Amino acid sequence: MTGCLDDAPPTFDADFIRRLEDLFKWRRDVRRFKTDPIAITLIEDLLEIAAHSPSVGNSQPWRFINVESAARRQAVIANFNACNAAALEAYEGERAALYARLKLAGLHEAPVHLAVFCDHATGAGMGLGRKTMPEMLDYSVVAAVHTFWLAARAHGLGVGWVSIIDPLELARSVDAPESWKLIAYLCVGFPEEEHADPELERRGWQAHVAQNAKLYTR
Amino acid sequence: MTGCLDDAPPTFDADFIRRLEDLFKWRRDVRRFKTDPIAITLIEDLLEIAAHSPSVGNSQPWRFINVESAARRQAVIANFNACNAAALEAYEGERAALYARLKLAGLHEAPVHLAVFCDHATGAGMGLGRKTMPEMLDYSVVAAVHTFWLAARAHGLGVGWVSIIDPLELARSVDAPESWKLIAYLCVGFPEEEHADPELERRGWQAHVAQNAKLYTR
């Protein structure tokens, strides 16, 4: 790998590529966190990195809220509990018992909660690239979440994406502006344990799922 | 950095983290490709990596089509041309002239075209995590696109995400199953040039946009 000068494109050697694959494979969705605090400057540094993600028309529509208030966190936890109870009702028998035993969020333990939104009122990008696929604005925020996740993991942090949540209620709970759509609610912290296999496999929710990388040709 | 044993979690040192930041910063959306061919085995390897992306309930709903047929590619190009002409009409005067001069896709030159879909009929994941946020299924595919993009860039390949396209017409053009929703149409090839700044800035569409990494607190 050559050094990265300010204006010379970097090249990435086989060793880097192998480590990068390790990063992708060991990323994981984390629900079991240590309660150790995280320096907020580290979160800020990771968001600086996340802000280099692709966004349609360079619109950078991501908005990050650090949810610190205990009362707001309680509201988020109540939101999750209600949605998780409703989700449980969709399963029956053995499957319902399995679901009930899963730990699907680390909202109590994670020292940092990040609510990530897409600002649908942004003027940045001047509409470029999203006339026929307006969902590109939301997708840009998903890419930023994924970048944040990877960068966090490289720093030894775990991230858990909580989607068992009413997104409109959550936006109200954290007092987000009207034009902001919730894309992700993230728990961030140091993981209690690390695994290369998904927790859903380890806990019996699903059999081992081989990676699905089939390439169709037309 | 320690080595990554089969069951020992990897750690990532400062050198790797710096290179990873280079990768994020130099990723870029590419529209200017060399026509040099790419070994399809490399694309397959990159999709193997992409398949390690996070997906809701480990549903892995991504579906990849390698669009090889010249007739299908012509249909895609006609689709893009029509949508781009319609997009141009939304701008006026100087701004329209600027838009008309932008090169917004490398569909003619890129040796590989990948159409990436989300399979809304997949049973994988058994619905877990997407009752209140069904859009999580689409978001999972966005994460896979981003992983593919990063892995491709590490291998020296450029990727351009074409969103100026009618997604339903495109799905028909590549004969995708009914339940597949188009998430991304990707041009892939070796880039003609590499830059750390977005083409939209270099070509005068927008002034320099500082990375937006603001962290709000509630």
Automatic annotation (TrEMBL), chains A, B:
Residues 25-189 form the Nitroreductase domain. Pfam families: Nitroreductase (PF00881). It is an enzyme of class 1 (oxidoreductase). GO terms for molecular function: 5,6-dimethylbenzimidazole synthase activity. The keyword Cytoplasm does not apply. Keywords: Oxidoreductase. The keyword Oxidoreductase applies. InterPro entries: BluB (IPR012825), Nitroreductase (IPR029479), Nitroreductase-like (IPR000415), Nitroreductase/BluB (IPR050627). Its EC number is 1.13.11.79. This is 5,6-dimethylbenzimidazole synthase.
